Structures are given as C-alpha cells and as structure tokens.
Amino acid sequence: MLTLEEKEFLDKNGYVALGQLLSNDEVEALNKRINELLNVEGENAGAELIESKYIRHPKEDGADRLADLVNKGQVFDILYTHPKVLAGIKAVLGINFKLSSLNYRAAKPRKGLQKLHVDWKNSVVNGTYKVCNTIWLLDDFTPDNGATRIVPGTHKTSKLPEEAMEDPMQPHPDQILIQAPAGSVFIFNSHVWHGGTTNLTDKDRRSIHSYFCAKDQPQQIDQKKYITEETRKRIGLKGERVLDTL
Ligand SMILES: O=C(O)CCC(=O)C(=O)O
Questions:
Q1: Distances (CA, A) of 116 to 48, 121, 167
Q2: pLDDT at position 149 over 60
Q3: Which of 32, 101, 214, 238 is deepest in the core (most CB within 10 A)?
Q4: For the segment 167-204, what is each residue's pLDDT rounded down to a tens digit?
C-alpha cells in the first residue's frame, strides 16, 4: 500500500506524507466529537495518560490533550486501522507492532512550542526502531499555526537533540515544517527529532496522533485494560489485532 518511493522517502528522511486520507465531512465529524469530549471531560481531559504514568503530555502547558480515543467513538476507528497507515508503520517497525495510544493534541494560540525530541530514551542507530507516530491533521497546518517540525534524517544519527544542540527549543537549521491541508496524514518515525512549534494564530491547531510501538514494548495506554465491550464488538478481530487486546 506504500509505493517504493514513499518507503524510500520514509526510510531516508524519517517521515512521509500519505496525502489527504480524510474527507472534509470526516474531519468535521472528528472535530465535532473532539469538542464534545473536551466539554464533557474538562479538567480531566488526558487523565488516562496520568493514570498510565505517562505524565509528560497531559501536563504540557499550552496544549489540549485527550487520550484513549479508541474507546470514545466509532469516528476514531479509521485513525488506527487505515491500511495505508498500517503499511507505513510496518515499513518502520516490521510486522510485529501494535497501537500504543490514540490521543488528541491541539497547540493553543501563542503556545505549543516543544523542544526537539524523540519518543525514546536513547538514539537507535541500527534501524531497530521501537516507536512510530502518525499525525492526522484536523486543521490546515501552515508555517504560523504551530505545525510540527522535523529534522529529516536524524533517526539515523547516534545523538539525541539535547546532546547535539545547545538549546533544543531553538529552531534547527535543517528542520522542515509539516504543511498540508486538514485531512492529511503524515507518518513519522518517532526516533526522528521532532516537536511542536508555536501557534502564532488565534485558533487552536488540532491533530490526532495514532502512535504505535513494537509488540515487545509497553503501550502508552494499556489497551487491554481500557478496551470496552462496545469497542470490541465494533472493531472485530482485525481491530483487536492492532490493539493487541486478544
Ligand atoms: O503535535 C505535534 O505537533 C507534535 C507533538 C509531539 O511531538 C509530542 O507531543 O511529543
């Protein structure tokens, strides 16, 4: 499902654009459900990440977070079962992977800057990648609304940003910004240096991350613990295989 060119680009640069996989109606339906959840969950939004001891994200100042979207509506199913996305994840992690978490992140106006980071404790130089992310754009990503930055090729270096840069909060000379219309999807190897940028507009910059890990790694959200009967019935064996809940 991924062309040879897409696979080679992903391997070389650590990210690839998969195009606009969602229609405008699908984006609208996702944003509607997200708004409902933000209203209902209020201060508790993202609590599942705290429970699972994954504390960095919900405490992020300047970003809204929602977690465990797997169990919060059918509208989210496509985000971790789309065949093209699964093909992209397989290209990075091999056949033995599972969903780690399905979370919402919005960079709030005038906020959202993150240091360049990888989602792993150390650098991985031999290609045995452990984690891989997908970002689904729920707004157009533009140069000034907090688009994700990536430093292409850094998943193959032996250094982490904090070892190579004086200040990983600063722009990197080689960084690119993910820029594409709402409904687009990018795969990025989580070992590539990446991070959110400042949203200089007065509107949220919304996205959902379907984040995957190798089968032998713990999930950010323990999918077996959280899965509801309703989700099980809805997604069937194929979905459960991706969640590793069977
Ligand atoms: O949402 C983004 O632009 C990037 C988020 C990210 O890298 C993170 O939260 O670790």
A1: 25, 14, 9
A2: yes
A3: 101
A4: 999 999 999 999 999 999 999 999 999 999 999 999 99
Phi/psi of residue 108, nearest 5 degrees: -80, 155
Best residue among 209, 210, 213, 220 to mutate for probing ligand 1, ranked by most atoms within 8 Å of CB: 209
Q: Residue 149 CA: which ligand 1 atom is closest? A: 3
Contacts of 116 (CB under 8 A, 6+ apart): 149, 151, 161, 165, 168, 169, 172, 175, 193, 194, 195
> Is the CB–ligand 1 distance for residue 196 below 6 Å?
yes
Supply the DSSP symbol for 117. Answer: B
Q: How far is the CA of 229 from the centre of ligand 1 (A)?
A: 30
Residue indicated by tokens 């309703």: 230
Distance of alpha carbon 117 from alpha carbon 211, whole angstroms: 15
Q: What is the C-alpha separation between 105 and 58, in angstroms, rounded? A: 10
Q: Ligand 1 pocket, 207 CB below 6 A? A: yes
Torsion region of 64: left, alpha or beta (phi above 0 gives left; psi -120 to 50 gives alpha)? beta
Q: Sign (positive/negative) of CA torsion 3, 194, 63, 231? A: positive
Beta carbon of 101 within 6 Å of any ligand 1 atom:
no
Cβ of 199 less than 6 Å from ligand 1: no
Q: Residue 72's Cα: distance from chain center in Å?
A: 17
Domains in the chain, start-ordered, CATH in brackets?
4-243 (2.60.120.620)
| Residue 57: per-residue pLDDT | 57
d(CA 183, CA 47): 26
